[in-house]
Design a protein that fits this description.
The strands form two sheets. Strands 1, 2, 3, 4, 5, 8, 9, 10, 11 and 12 form a ten-stranded mixed β-sheet that branches. The protein is globular. The chain is α/β, with parallel strands linked by helices. The chain has a single domain, classed as NAD(P)-binding Rossmann-like Domain (Rossmann fold), CATH 3.40.50. Strand 6 and strand 7 form a beta hairpin. It is built from seven helices and twelve strands. It starts with a strand and ends with a strand. Bound molecules: NADP nicotinamide-adenine-dinucleotide phosphate.
Length: 202
Amino acid sequence: MKVGIIGAGRLGTALARHFTRAGHQVKLSSSRGPDALTGLVGELGGNASAGTAQEAADFGDVVVLAVQWDQKESAVASVSSWQDRTVLVPINPLRETEGRLEHADTGGRPPTEVVASLIPGAQVVKGFNTYPAQVLAEDPAVDGGRRIVLLAGDDAGAKRKVADLTDSAGFQAVDTGTLAEGGPLFDSGGPLGGPRKDILAL
Ligand SMILES: NC(=O)c1ccc[n+]([C@@H]2O[C@H](COP(=O)([O-])OP(=O)(O)OC[C@H]3O[C@@H](n4cnc5c(N)ncnc54)[C@H](OP(=O)(O)O)[C@@H]3O)[C@@H](O)[C@H]2O)c1
C-alpha cells in the first residue's frame, strides 16, 4: 500500500516505521518541509520518502493525519481537497501546556467528528490513538499475542483498507463500528481509551 503521513512527529514516525517494515511505501510531511526529514527518511530506508502535505495526501491509498489537536486546521488547509480520501485519524483532543497534558475543548462534540468536519468528503477512520507513541513503536507481538488497534469509521471500504494496513504491520485491528457508535469507546477518557499498552489478541 502507499501511505501518506502528514505529521512526522512521535506518532507519525512510529507508524512510518511499522508500515515501511511491513513493505508499504510511506511519504512523510511536516511543518518544516521535506528537507527537514532527510535524516528520518534515510533511517527508514528505501520505502520512505518526504514531501509536502499535499504530496503526502496525493501519495496513495491512505492518508494519516498525525498532527496535534491545535495543528489540525493548518495541516488540513495545506491540502486542496479531501474528497474521497481515506484518512486515518489518531488525533486526541490534548494539548501540552508547560509539560502537562490538558484536554482541549471540543464543544461537547466527539473529537474525531470535529476533525472529520474539517475534511469534507473524506472517509475518516479513527485509530492508533490509544497507545503512547513509544509503546506503539514497539513490536506489536507481545506475550504470544498481538496488540489490538481499535478502529471506528462510517465507510466500510475505508475501514477495511486501514484494517488490512494495521494487520499487515503485526497488530490486530478491531472494528468498533461507526464513528458515532465506536469512536467514543476509545476517546481519551473513554472506557477503552488510552494511554494503554496491554490489550492483546491471543
Ligand atoms: N505521542 C503520543 O504518544 C500519541 C498517542 C496517541 C495519539 N497521539 C495523537 O497523535 C497526534 C500527533 O501526536 P505527536 O505526539 O506525534 O505530535 P508531535 O510529535 O508534536 O508531531 C506533530 C507533527 O505534526 C507536524 N505538523 C504540524 N503542523 C503541520 C502542518 N501544517 N503540515 C504538516 N505537518 C505538520 C509537526 O511538524 P514539525 O516536525 O515540523 O514540527 C510534527 O512533525 C496528536 O493528535 C496526538 O493526540 C499521540
